[in-house]
Write a structure and sequence with these properties.
Largest sheet: 7 strands, antiparallel
Bound molecules: flavin-adenine dinucleotide
CATH class of the largest domain: Alpha Beta
Structural class: alpha+beta
Oligomer: single chain
Strand content: 15-25%
Number of helices: 16
Number of domains: 3
CATH topology of the largest domain: Uridine Diphospho-n-acetylenolpyruvylglucosamine Reductase, domain 3
Helix content: 25-40%
Number of strands: 16
């Protein structure tokens, strides 16, 4: 597609619309908006101008101007994304919503693990979901309505303060997960729930990943719905413990489950935890440790939360993946990861949300491997990983999205009919193709 240019006259027009302090065009300050949490070296791209609107009216004015001049617009939340969605890959205008983030410590149960750094708008655009998804579900479950600035610069309210609504197509939830390609969310109505008063965590050691995973559906089938069931293979636990100088008793274990229960009443939560612990032992666990106070809970969760960081220290050259397979197929994907890792001489630690089949199987370069060898091995290993995921009925991303990073693989995971429908929706909403172009798929 041919796009218009951001000229000095256009920047001046933006200054007139938003005020000079909401328009950034010096390279040093714009650098922060040229990447997200994916590798800046590999995916980064500078915007031509950054705007920081403070109201829906200002967002609308910017989008109208961009639509008039056919300039790419890239919506941006906090930039914590892991698929390059907020990167202005074709230049143009980066619309940062940082001054419209008005949430004050509100609790919505669909939040991701990056809760301290991301924005609600980014969560909606990515349909984010974190470790609590087994019990509480992901962002879409909590979005009742939203205000959207469409790519043609109109403001529309979708949904509302309604628990039930079948009035026409569910456009609210078309926007959830649309990665900023169909408009800019400026306000959202989110369902909030009461904070649980009690929680208990179990750290369960198993000899093999297969034994660990076999427990997951059993726990749910027997009537207890934990908040989360996090899976960590031995390599992940070892590396994170080494990084934290932590000494969890993982000798002899091949995999762990970190299971969290919560509720309004401590006695019920403890009873649930005990029942789940007994069930794990019955299913072959080596040991069950209960963490029922804040200090031990923080210790065990810290091991889980620091896995990604620990591998970055081991070698920063890596590809953090986000595959999702049917939960029952997790034991089948793990030997595939081992096979691919051995074939290419790389490490593929596997950890993630076992309760919903979403695994962060991360391809990590061996520190001694030459960069040239990695550059050849990584795409081939990724192809094999995705082929294995497809075979098991899985998908390429469970929570981080497609963005820039994964768009070339979309065709493998979507039929031509589905892809055609998605492109038709995009063209209907955004006839000039200005809203976050180059993400999810290319239009031509
Ligand atoms: C340490 C770490 C842990 C993470 N854990 C999780 C996890 O547990 N679960 C999970 O799902 N993700 C996780 N993520 C990924 C990331 O935090 C989420 O995708 C988050 O939802 C992105 O929010 P953001 O505000 O940073 O959005 P950004 O990165 O700024 O943008 C993400 C996408 O949303 C679009 N966008 C942003 N704001 C708007 C808006 N107002 N309107 C329309 N489009 C918009 C952008 O164009 C882009 O396509 C993690 C990331 C990190 C770094």
């Amino acid at each position: 597609m041919n796009y218009g240019k951001v000229t000095e006259a256009l920047v001046e027009e933006l200054r007139g619309l938003l005020g000079p302090k909401n328009v950034i065009c010096d390279a040093e300050r714009m650098e922060a908006y040229s990447h997200d949490e994916t590798s800046a070296e590999e995916y980064g791209h500078m915007p031509d101008v950054v705007v920081t609107p403070t109201s829906t009216d200002q967002v609308t004015a910017v989008v109208r101007l961009a639509n008039r001049e056919r300039i790419p617009v890239t919506p941006r939340g906090a930039g914590s994304g892991l698929s390059g969605g907020a990167i202005p890959s074709l230049g143009g205008i980066s619309v940062s919503l940082e001054k419209m983030n008005k949430g004050k410590g509100l609790f919505y149960a669909g939040y991701p693990m990056s809760l301290e750094t991301c924005f609600l708008g980014g969560n909606i655009a990515e349909n984010a979901g974190g470790g609590k998804a087994v019990k509480y579900g992901v962002t879409s479950r909590y979005v009742l309505g939203l205000e959207l600035v469409t790519p043609t610069g109109e403001v529309v309210w979708l949904g509302g303060k309604l628990s039930k609504d079948v009035t026409g197509y569910d456009l609210t939830h078309l926007i959830v997960g649309s990665e900023g390609t169909l408009g800019i969310v400026t306000t959202a109505i989110i369902r909030l729930i009461g904070l649980p008063k009690a929680k208990s965590d179990l750290l369960v050691l198993f000899r093999t990943p297969a034994e660990a995973i076999a427990c997951v559906p059993e726990i749910i089938a027997r009537g207890t719905i934990p908040v989360s069931m996090e899976f960590m293979d031995k390599l992940s636990v070892e590396t994170s413990c080494g990084y934290l100088n932590e000494s969890l008793p993982y000798e002899g274990c091949g995999a762990m489950l970190l299971i969290e229960m919560d509720g309004q009443d401590a006695a019920t939560v403890d009873a649930d935890a005990e029942r789940v612990g007994d069930l794990c032992m019955e299913k072959g666990a080596i040991e069950v440790y209960m963490a029922d106070n804040r200090t031990t809970q923080e210790r065990v969760w810290s091991v889980r939360r620091n896995i990604a960081e620990a591998f970055k220290v081991r070698c920063p050259v890596q590809s953090l993946e986000d595959i999702v397979v049917p939960t029952a197929s997790i034991p089948d994907i793990i030997p595939e990861l081992d096979r691919i890792a051995a074939k290419y001489g790389i490490a593929i630690p596997c950890y993630g949300h076992a309760g919903d089949g979403n695994l962060h199987a991360t391809l990590v370069k061996d520190p001694d491997m030459a960069l040239e060898v990695w550059k050849k091995a990584e795409p081939e290993a990724l192809e094999e990983l995705y082929a294995a995921v497809t075979k098991l009925g899985g998908k390429i991303s469970g929570e981080h999205g497609i963005g820039l990073k994964r768009k070339k693989y979309m065709a493998e995971f979507m039929s031509p009919v589905e892809m055609g429908l998605i492109k038709a929706i995009k063209m209907a909403w955004d006839p000039k193709g200005i809203m976050n172009p180059g993400k999810l798929f290319d239009l031509d």
